[in-house]
Amino acid sequence: MQRTHAARARRRSGRSAALAVSGVLVLAVSACSNGPDGDGTGLAPTSTTATDPAVDAGSDGLAPVELTVTAGTDPGSADGRSLNVPSGWNAEIWADVPGARLAAWAPDGSVVVSTGDQGVVTRLVPTSEGEAPSSTTLLDGLDDPQGVAFAEQNGRSVLVVGEATRIVAWDYADGSASNRRILVDGLPSSGHGKKAVTVRGDTVFYSLGSSANRDPADRTADPQRATVWQVGLDGTGNSVVATGVRNGFGLDVGPDGTLFVAVNQSDNQPYPFRDDTGRYRESVRGYVNENPIEQISRIAPGTDLGWPLCVPDTRGGITDVPYVPDPMNNPDGHELDCATLPNTMVGLPAHSAPLGLEFTAGTPIERALGSGALITAHGSWNREPPRPPSVAFTPWDAATATLGPPIALVTGFQDDDGSRWGRTVTAVPGPDGSLYVTDDDAGLVYRLAPGT
Question: Can you give the pTM of this predicted structure?
Fold first, then answer.
């Protein structure tokens, strides 16, 4: 059944997370950084419930499980592979979807998956256990479809899709999309121009990432880049919600009804501290490997996350993170007073590239994980050594309406030598209590089911 924000609100004071953080994420803040942890994710380990001494739980508290394959599915590069998941979980290659990117469950119990440069939105309908879902093309001929989300408008279901230069809506019924209308058009697609979407009530939120890595000109561009925008389902009220958001590709609404963003931060960040290392403004590999953190934060109209004038300062930890001035773009703080910015709620390891953000409140998987956020990382493109793809979970504190430190939930897509056989994009809770994970490199959708 379809998740609603009303259901989320009713349940936001519910369970605490069932997974306990058994460590902390340590981020380097000097030239002498710590090396990566055992799996390279930089994530804190989960607690493990394994009681069988034969279970080989790794340093992240996860246990390797060989991927099974549904009948009728080609496993491709995932053939014979295993994933590291919480002890007792099952892992299955559920469906072939070339270029699988973002996903959303429809009110009719099917799941739609965007495919980026394939130009297609695919509809998958679950069949019987162990069998591949039926697969049909819901939409084709699109221009780089990324974000997909369902909404209700005037008693009918609406599918919203973020294309390269526009935000588009269709009526959705009986497994078909009709009555196409463009909500916003003429958007730039250069740089970090892929459009993610989420919906709250009759408002669509969408990302418009930066055109470059660290260029302040994006803050005054027309339209302004490194932003999150909103527009009504009727196409009115297009306006900026938040600025200084380098590439806020992960978007979702939290259990308290507020908007959250997962931000892909800068590469090759110059050292921002005027300390006794003498490295101020230099490119320091140890610092660059672990900084700046990827940001998970609440945003509201008028929020500024500071890019590229302010840098998250992790010297005090990875939650409630303040900022320091960027040493090249804002050395004296004249361009922007970094102390006035809202602290980053949670830091994800640098260069993780978080693309998926999904809250669990009000979904069946909340019974296994508790209330929190699923953060899916695509993995780094230029870190040395590479940051691997992963799915993390960060628990929700209902008393403070905040997220806690991220915990490793799914790993194993990268080999010890840094090569990858898959790259995760998003993880969405399914109506059956399983987690459905897309992989645009292997062209697959995985079904991960908690043990009974």
Answer: 0.90
